[in-house]
Amino acid sequence: MSQEIVQKYDVAVIGGGIIGSSIAYHLLQTSPGLSVCVIEPDPTYEFASALRSSGGCRVQFTAPENIEMSLYSLERIKNFEHEMTSKGRPAPVDWVEGGYLFVVEPEHVAAIERFTRRQQEHGCVVELLDPQGLKKYFPSINSDDLGVGAYTPHDGWCDPNGLLWGYRRKAAELGAVYIKDKFVDASVEGGIARAITLESGTRIQADSFINAAGAWSGLVAERFGMKLPIVPMRRFEHYFTPATPMERLPYVKDLSRLAFRSEGEGFSGGLVNGKEPRGFNFDVDHDYWENVVWPAVAHRFPVLEAAKCHRTWSGLYEVNELDGNPVIGRWNSRVPNLYTCAGFSGHGMMHAPAAGRGIAELLITGRYQSIDLTRMGYERVETNTPYAEEGIL
Fold this sequence. Notes:
There is one protein chain. Helices cover about 25% and strands about 30% of the residues. It is of the alpha/beta class. The longest helix has 18 residues, at about 350-365.
């Protein structure tokens, strides 16, 4: 009978994607003496949510925590190439300060104005454009049915692959041990998480465990006896080009969840179907572009009526069904050495720097030192008290 392999660490991070790798980096940057392992079954990250995203980073949120996380993360992403240099190797993320543009119909103008004031109070640069102003900035836009556009010129997008690997390489350089294996079970005794079991049979003991498994985090939580309302939801991304030349566009979003931005000679984006059945589905519906996305982009920018879609791919949102905001924190009431950092519902990549720092602060010092993320904690799940964004997701 083969002997069980047992390994011991101070911290075990379940999930080595962009969130897990950011956490590992921030833990070791803050406390270099820690022993940290990161469990990641697929180091190619074929199905990782962040790598199938469009890499957008924006301050246009309504929850103060999200605004502050964005402000911090944007600074880190803009300086990432140099800050994350590992063993003399820069960490390029191809940052593009292309801006974000949220457009709404007249009946939503008052709400957008209120949200904009909140963002400006946090130091964000936001410009409100009336229909004439929108046409001046973006001549191809159809603004006839719009009330206002909120434009944040310092937002933009980056390469998610560069961000993930930048964090992973730097975390490994600082001492994080990446284990290519799959989490299958957890051992909890007396209100303390004692160990996790991997598919290979290896048993990992640790003082603290962090669930950063993204779209799989709900399944991981179950094994600890925790009910976490985070589920996978398929969404599509499309690359398309105009038939005739037009201006470059910021990341355009509206209330129907249409979202697309300039990419090379064309555009990258899609329109999220919030009613998409939940589950691990990566099949591509090649009719979705023509039936759903194309009519929406052609309405907003008539020049795109003759747009050609070159490629469609699928990815997963890790949707927090309670309120769409992430669950960040420890399970204070039941298993206080189990931490969760998941459920970003499409905002994981842009908030990875701030979320990783927050979890590291909480674990090492017992409280948040920079951005108070208490309201993002698991307590609201236990009490069924949603803390949701009011604006455009």
